[in-house]
Predict the 3D structure of the following.
Amino acid sequence: MTGRIPEPALGLLREAGQVWAWDGDDPVPIDVRDAQLADADGVVTLLSDRVDDGFLDAAPRARIVANVAVGYNNIDVAACTAREVRVSNTPGVLTDATADLTMGLLIAATRRLGEGERLIRSGTPWKWGMFMMLGTGLQGRRLGIVGMGGIGTAVASRARAFGMEIVYHNRTAVASDIEQLLEARRLPLDELLATSDVVSLHCPYSDETHHLIDAAALATMRRSAYLVNTARGPIVDEAALVDALDDGRIAGAALDVFENEPDVHPGLVDLDNVVLAPHLGSATTETRTAMAELAARNVIALLRGDEPPTPVN
Ligand code: 8YV
């Protein structure tokens, strides 16, 4: 294991075999990692590990790479498949936590909670005012969801409870009973961007979605609209977003992920109309434990000769 994972998952792996886990706070040094990979039959990886040919060369015995994340853009899946190395991820168990955080960010942005916090903590004198720090209500507003998988759908059902109208963009339509339940409509991306009051990103990151939200996409959004990103940073052209926020071409943004994580574009830090969170989408004790257990179960199943429960390849 390239990093520490919650104890219940570690326990599952220890019961099943011999375990080595990097225990440092900094990323595992490459030479230490490679010395361990040399004998590993399975590897548990984190979002911060790049699993490429170099990594796989160091792990000639590995038969599975179990990523503790639903996103697996840190893994060269084709390179793994070419070497008959299985890859698994952790879908499902983090859906609610990520959808909850998305709603938190959405409300923080539209109700200016970050600005309010900073005002009070700065010691600036303030008093209640009829026109003080007015935000935007959600009732009757349109939420445009880009990527209507498990997390996008869970965000939609929460947003319905806040009285929002749902539109979505996805390669395929969601099941008609879910569409009906959410009263959701599938739209082309440009129409979704042009008509939504809040745009929330829930698609995977790939070559296809790199800078999906670029200057041109931002220009089609309403001046009163907000962008929320709890998916992956590079889906958004961060420099273009800073320009759009700076010029008031959109009203605000709330971001849990960044283009060059953990670096954050300095322009974002300077802006008041953006809420920033340090990749907390799945960060609850229960969820991280469930993710790690699922990764452990994938390794154990494969090494016992069974099909892993949540394979990617
Ligand atoms: C995690 C995530 O915080 O699952 C994902 O794809 O981005 C988050 O749930 C992270 O990946 C933990 O490694």
Notes: Residues 46-47, 68-71, 94, 279, 281-282 surround 2-keto-D-gluconic acid (CB under 6 Å). The mean pLDDT is 97. The longest helix spans residues 285-303.
